[in-house]
Task: structure prediction
Amino acid sequence: MAKRLGIITHRYARPLFEGLTTSNEPLFECIEGADTQLAIQLRQQQIDGAFLSPINYAKEYSHYKIIPDVAAVSEGESGVILMFFHEQAREIRTLAADPAMSSEIVLASLILSEKFDIKASIVPFAGAVEESLQKADAYLAVGDAALALSNRPNKLDLVDEWNDITELPFVHGMWVVREGGLTDQEIKIVRTSSLRSGNAYTKEPRKNPIAPSQLVTYKFDERAIAALNEFYRMAYYHGILKDIPDVKFTDH
Result:
């Protein structure tokens, strides 16, 4: 029976999954879903591994490990996480966001606190930007939704703001496996396939329409690891996380 892997639907991450989903004889059953949904399925052992955001790894990190070398990482104005606000807004007190955007909500909170000394309340909402801005001072868009709104004015690119604060990229997600969920050989296959697919995009970004920006890359290198640790450290400092998660990698 094929092992089950959870993958997100956003285009910026799709290059990582191409080799796993387009094979004539796939070794894995790939289950598409939202990040938070996949985290629940992984915790309940309904799937064996998943591409999770940093916060959903942090919630269960004692039971998980990360497959090394590969992640979805961006830097500068990547367009992956955007915050829109009213043209006349002088202060952002409320932020409308889909509760499933766990890591992105944390990122927005950190940037508002660190850079603008603002403590915004989150208004759970998953509607359109116009309707959201009737209910809150700002609206958070992620992935494909952010890409679709990229030409809209009055916005902050939160990855660019994070880079301005930390001089580091932002890690959007990485492969996470339960202890014993995948064999060493299966982990190696996921890693190798993801690296191969991701490299194909980064070398020829203009020929690949899947990812929204040339600034999305797929190398989980030392700077990306440092960025992930800094994200956890800041989230802990601001009382969002109860402790600082260990960033633990598999052996393959």
